[in-house]
Amino acid sequence: MNVVLLSGGVGGARFARGVQAALAPGELTVIGNVGDDVEVLGLHVSPDLDSVLYALADLNDEERGWGRAGETWNALAAASGWGGEDWFRLGDLDLGLHLVRTQALRAGRSLSDVTAQLATVAGLATRIVPATDDRLRTQIVTPSGTFGFQEWFVGRGHRDPVDAVRFDGASEAAPASGVLEALAAADAILIAPSNPYVSIQPIAAVPALRAALEQRRVRCVAVSPLIGGRAVKGPADRMLSRMAGGTEPRHVAGCYEELIDALVIDGSDAPADAGVPTTVTATLMSDLAAARRLAEKALEAAA
Ligand code: FO1
Known about the structure:
By secondary structure, the protein is an alpha/beta fold.
């Protein structure tokens, strides 16, 4: 069975780990968001690809949700001491990956190529593919101005209400090598319980990727990131309230118009008319076993 998962952020990485556990080795391809990629201290950082890589390789910091377990911060403290930027925290272990990726990109290799190399070195049978190798950057439009994703999310603590989200570069972006092939070979497509606006929509903003999703011949099932109308972490609930008019399953499903055949929701959000069929289950991924159970439910709904 071939399964494609669209994923971004911490919820996406946790779910990816559950899906990987529910499948046989090599059956999963994760298409990752690159809209929140950022240049820090001269290094190219791909937070969502790295969250998936670290989670699938059991290297992630469970509590923080991003970055590596057992992290130390000496290089960042030293850079800060020399007057360097320290608003975006790059740990010593994490830095090793950014150095390798940045060197590869500067040598002219593609993001998908170096991501595949990193996954192989980590020993993964799962493929991790960026949505695009082209430059695509999420911009957050707020009453205080428009900010790059990480400037708003980390720099400003995602406090500003969001009026709109833009994906700079998306209209000219092509799917990364491997994306369309994975979608064409998929027996099921899943959308992780990630923020629809800033994790999944930047993936679907790549025109040929969106067309492939819309023309799918297999089922696509999304998992709602909300529990009882609230985000487990992050600003998804506030964004849905302001931009979609509410935090019910139908507001989540509305973000995925034409893209999904069913929505998995938490028991605390049921019953609900989401405009698409719903599957009700416990969606809180408190550990790997819970993430795997959720993945199994989503896979059943996609069968
Ligand atoms: N999130 C934070 O809230 N503060 C940080 O300083 C921070 C640093 C960071 C470094 C590497 C990385 O891969 C992720 C990092 N994140 C940080 C998380 C990241 O901003 C978000 O998880 C995603 O971009 C949201 O999808």
